[in-house]
Specification:
Chain C: InterPro entries: BP-dep_ABC_trans_perm, MetI-like, MetI-like_sf. Chain B is built from 13 helices and 2 strands. With about 300 residues, chain B is mainly α. In chain B, α3 packs across α8, α5 packs across α8 and α8 crosses α10. The longest helix of chain C has about 35 residues. Chain C contains 12 helices and no strands. The chains are: A alpha+beta (about 400), B mainly alpha (about 300), C mainly alpha (about 280).
Chain lengths: ~400, ~300, ~280
């Protein structure tokens, strides 16, 4: 009896699991994105608007969060997956091959020149994705707490200003792989003439001297010893952590840095008590990073033409009317009406450079990030001296570059 | 086939089939993968043979050694022992007639299950919030009662980080131990305790000579399963400290993840996985042998 | 009820421990009710309870298909649990009562499955499921969950069955029971606390499972609670009120379910003891 009940259950369930492809109806496309539900209200509105005006091309917005590019690769490699996939700039390099993605040059044509960060989506002379949204980290501060101090324009100024205020500079300083201290560390290093790795005529090597790394380590560790940053931030991994977002809102923290989407959530909570400014040296070309998301077409898509139509719509000014992100298109960006508080981002964006400088070696950007975060954290917690940690970073990078 | 074999076969086969179908092929594949060069972005067919290179890379990584030590002592041994001790105490309390008389038993037993229903991601987020050095409730409390002069970042300093991670794991995983032991306690016949009481045995004596021996098979299973699951666990450390501060809380499972999905070398990840499997297999064999012998003697 | 001072020796420590156990969850629920502006924790205690409300829940249910995800999870977890308990009962009985030659190897195989790191299993399972059409299907996920939870269920039941005297089986056989009859009429009723334990562990293991669900069920209508929940933790996400609301909603069905099971279990046990 148990067995027959089991069979009945299986049959019942099988009936539920549908595969609704086929038929002559409208073209159905799946568009997958990975940003959290709370951030995509405006995107949903834009997709609904498209579906309303295009009965022949219906788009299903699918959210698979957090970002899992490996899942998309797994699906594409086995012949399935969404038609359109949102890909973080840093991940395009991993899926830029014809077994996973459809090259888009035929569609893009000259339109490519208008786009930002094309160096993150072009590999072997083919364009594998269309840059869609752009972001960078700007300095965000509580006006009252910063008081009469001006937002700092160099890292040294930041250290001095922050040290004169309790919790002057709150930043995520955990040692975990994804810890967002990585961005500040790079910004510091870039504005002081270094980089973790560099590519000279196709040959990869480490891009900073031991002295440069030691001084970077001393600088960030100094923020804790001077009291500019409370030790508790050594356990914080994200700029969206409550201790930072709430700290800025209540004035427990004077300054921090975050991407625009997090800043938008912060302003919902803190109103005009917070505002943005360029990062220290943020108006110097290449001293900050240009991140963002791109849109790619799965090579398994049965309707690549229609998929590209949808991409064109998603990258147009139309979509950005409701979707509160910065477009990765120079033209659309200038058409954007930006509130005063976000000026820091808009001023800095034209000077930001993509992470392409780290892409193409045997080391993944994620593993450089892991190594760097670990070693900085080891100095904060007293496990290493800054000289030892600098050496460990150089050794780790050299070992990874050898492959 | 022997008689007991004939009788057992139809009972055991369905379960074995389901398990076998799902695990056999992937299990073998994991072994193959350890000798291959493959990224998570390639189809399995694209793999190239790598010989022993993966094992060599993993074994010469100094981090793997300290991660192994952390995995065995902090992550596994410490949390399992603490879970067993607190779990046994709590199970005895929940089994007590006093709670039954006060009609608090049902409530208490449901309350014990609560942490288990909180998804690990959320559990870690809640605890990180509680542990926060500035605004965490725990720090505010400890400062208010004068134990600490100022807040402490529990998850960022080497002196407290492991104990904090252990607290999170024990909190989240304690319900399993409690409920399994409680079910064991409930199937010990009352008569045995009554007989012992007539013989003048005290509480401790009846716990030692009746309760513990009756729970023996159940405790055996609990220890085995919690050891294996904790040894392989990746979520708690990864989400709470990410292996930090520095590399202080790196464990084998986080190393596996880093190799496979951060450095994009599935082969090196599989090699660590294979080593972990081997360690646990040796442990399980030794453990079962010892506990089976105990069972025969009892 | 008679008041005995000694009762405090049980009640006080029990509730002290229970407080520590429940506090983080209460804190989670509390957080979900606080307005976004009050989430910074440095308010004086007197103002903690100002402006509590269900705003975050409104945002949660307007912005996502959370109700649907809960339905999916309940279905998959319940069906998996039924299959696991039935299959595990048979297997554990066979392993407990018959000392056949392959018993050792069978136990080892069952155990060995627990040793495999799941991250490495996922690709081959995904490929195989995509071949036979079990992706985005309830059946596929149930199969995985049954296989995943069977080993622990078998071992747990084995532990409980071993404590049941064989004399009872033999008495039932003399009364003319078949093997299935012995299992369902004799062994399972006595091992009821054990069965409830296995039901609980299996249900919760499948309810909280994220990894396979996120890989095998990508359709918007097929997501489980954990996959839905994880989509609130993103790179940009800092709406902690909503995250905590989602977590609370994801926790409530299981708490309700188990408070019901708990009552029935207590009732069943006292009935059993009267018979004895």
């Amino acid at each position: 009896m148990a067995a027959s009940a089991a069979v009945a259950l299986c049959l019942g369930l099988a009936a539920c699991s549908g595969d609704d492809s086929g038929g002559d109806g409208p073209v159905k496309l799946v568009f997958r994105q990975f940003d959290p539900e709370s951030e995509i209200g405006g995107l949903k509105t834009a997709v609904d608007a498209w579906n309303g005006s295009h009965p022949d091309i219906q788009v299903e917005l699918q959210t698979l969060s957090p970002n899992n590019i490996q899942q998309f690769a797994r699906e594409a490699n086995s012949g399935s997956g969404p038609d359109i996939n949102q890909v973080a700039f840093a991940d395009v390099a991993f899926v830029a091959n014809s077994k996973i993605l459809q090259p888009l040059d035929e569609y893009l044509g000259a339109g490519k020149d208008d786009l930002l960060a094309t160096d993150m989506v072009t590999f072997e002379d083919k364009t594998w994705a269309v840059p869609w949204t752009a972001d960078t980290m700007a300095l965000v501060y509580n006006k009252e707490k910063l008081g009469s101090n001006k937002p700092p324009t160099t890292w040294e100024e930041l250290a001095t200003t922050a040290a004169s205020i309790k919790n002057g500079f709150c930043f995520p300083a955990a040692g975990s792989q994804t810890s967002a201290q990585w961005f500040a560390i790079n910004y510091y290093l870039w504005s002081h003439g270094g980089a973790f790795i560099q590519n000279t005529n196709g040959a990869w090597s480490t891009g900073a001297t031991k002295e440069q790394l030691t001084s970077a380590l001393d600088f960030f560790n100094g923020l804790f010893t001077s009291g500019a940053t409370s030790k508790s931030f050594q356990a914080v991994q994200d700029y969206s952590d409550p201790s930072i977002v709430n700290g800025l809102a209540t004035g427990d923290c004077a300054m921090s840095y975050m991407p625009p989407a997090t800043f938008a959530t912060l302003t919902k909570q803190a109103g005009d008590k917070v505002t943005s400014a360029p990062m220290p040296s943020g108006l110097t070309d290449g001293a900050t990073h240009l991140g963002g998301r791109a849109l790619a077409v799965n090579r398994n898509s049965k309707h690549p033409d229609q998929a590209y139509e949808v991409i064109k719509y998603l990258t147009s000014a139309e979509t950005f009317k409701t979707y509160s992100q910065y477009p990765a298109s120079k033209k659309t960006l200038t058409e954007l009406d930006v509130p005063e508080a976000q000026k820091g981002y808009v001023e800095q964006l034209p000077h930001s450079r993509s992470m392409a400088r780290y892409i193409g070696s045997d080391l993944t950007v994620a593993s450089i990030q892991q190594l760097v975060n670990q070693q900085f954290s080891a100095v904060y917690s007293g496990q290493s001296s800054s000289a030892d940690a600098a050496q460990a970073i150089l050794d780790g990078l050299a070992k990874g570059l050898k492959g | 086939m022997s008689r007991p074999g004939r009788q057992a076969l139809p009972l055991v086969t369905p379960a074995l089939l389901v398990i076998g179908v799902l695990f056999l092929f992937p299990g073998v594949y994991n072994v193959v993968l350890a000798f291959q060069d493959l990224t998570p972005f390639d189809a399995p067919g694209d793999a190239e043979w790598a010989g022993l290179a993966n094992f060599q890379a993993v074994l010469t990584d100094p981090l793997v050694g300290s991660a192994a030590v952390n995995t065995v002592f902090w992550l596994t041994a410490a949390t399992v022992i603490i879970r067993l001790v607190i779990g046994m105490g709590l199970a005895l309390l929940l089994h007590s007639r006093v709670l039954h008389r006060w009609r608090l038993r049902g409530f208490a037993r449901t309350a014990v299950l609560v942490p288990w229903m909180v998804p690990p991601v959320v559990a870690v987020a809640c605890w990180k919030w509680i542990f926060d050095g500035n605004t965490g409730v725990l720090n505010q409390f400890l400062v208010a009662i004068g134990v600490l002069p100022e807040g402490v970042p529990f998850l960022a300093q080497t002196s407290t980080v492991w104990w904090s991670v252990i607290a999170i794991i024990v909190w989240r995983e304690l319900p399993f131990v409690v409920i399994v032991l409680l079910a064991g306690l409930q199937s010990v016949p009352e008569e045995q305790y009554e007989a012992a009481a007539l013989d003048g045995a005290g509480r401790w004596a009846s716990f030692r000579h009746i309760t513990l021996p009756s729970l023996r098979p159940v405790i055996t299973v609990v220890v085995l399963m919690t050891v294996i699951q904790t040894f392989n666990n990746f979520v708690y450390v990864w989400l709470s400290t990410g292996g930090g501060p520095g590399t202080y809380t790196q464990v084998l499972a986080t190393q596996l993840y880093s190799k496979a999905f951060v450095a994009n070398s599935l082969g090196e990840g599989a090699a660590i996985g294979l080593a972990m499997t081997a360690v646990m297999a040796v442990f399980a064999l030794a453990y079962l042998r010892v506990s089976d012998r105990g069972r025969v003697e009892a | 009820m008679r008041w005995r001072p000694r009762d405090l020796l049980v009640i006080v420590p029990t509730f002290a421990i229970l407080f520590v156990i429940v506090f983080p969850v209460l804190w989670m629920v509390f957080t979900s009710l606080r307005p976004a502006s009050a989430l910074a924790a440095n308010l004086p205690v007197g103002q903690w309870f100002d402006g509590l409300g269900f705003d975050a829940y409104g945002r949660l249910f307007n912005d996502s298909g959370f109700a649907r995800y809960i339905g999916n999870s309940l279905l998959v977890s319940a069906v998996s649990t039924v299959f696991t308990v039935v299959l595990a009962s048979f297997a554990a009985y066979g392993l407990s009562r018959f000392k056949f030659r392959l018993r050792g190897p069978v136990l080892l195989i069952v155990l060995a499955t627990q040793l495999l790191p799941f991250v490495v299993l996922i690709s081959p399972i995904y490929l195989a499921f995509s071949e036979i059409g079990l992706l985005n299907s309830y059946v596929g996920l149930v199969v995985v969950y049954v296989a995943m939870t069977l080993p622990l269920a078998i071992y747990l039941l084995l532990g409980y069955f071993d404590t049941i005297p064989r004399v009872l089986d033999e008495a039932a056989r003399i009364d003319g029971c078949s093997t299935a009859g012995v299992i369902f009429r004799v062994v399972l009723p006595i091992a009821l606390p054990g069965i409830v334990t296995v039901v609980t562990t299996t249900f919760i293991t499948t309810w909280e499972e994220y990894f396979f669900a996120s890989v095998l069920m990508t359709g918007e209508d097929l997501k489980t609670v954990q996959v839905g929940l994880s989509s609130f933790f993103g790179e940009y996400s800092s709406d902690w009120g909503m995250i905590m609301a989602a977590a609370t909603v994801a926790t409530i069905p299981t708490i309700l379910l188990f408070s019901i099971v708990q009552k029935r279990l207590v009732a069943g046990l006292s009935a059993g003891s009267v018979k004895q």
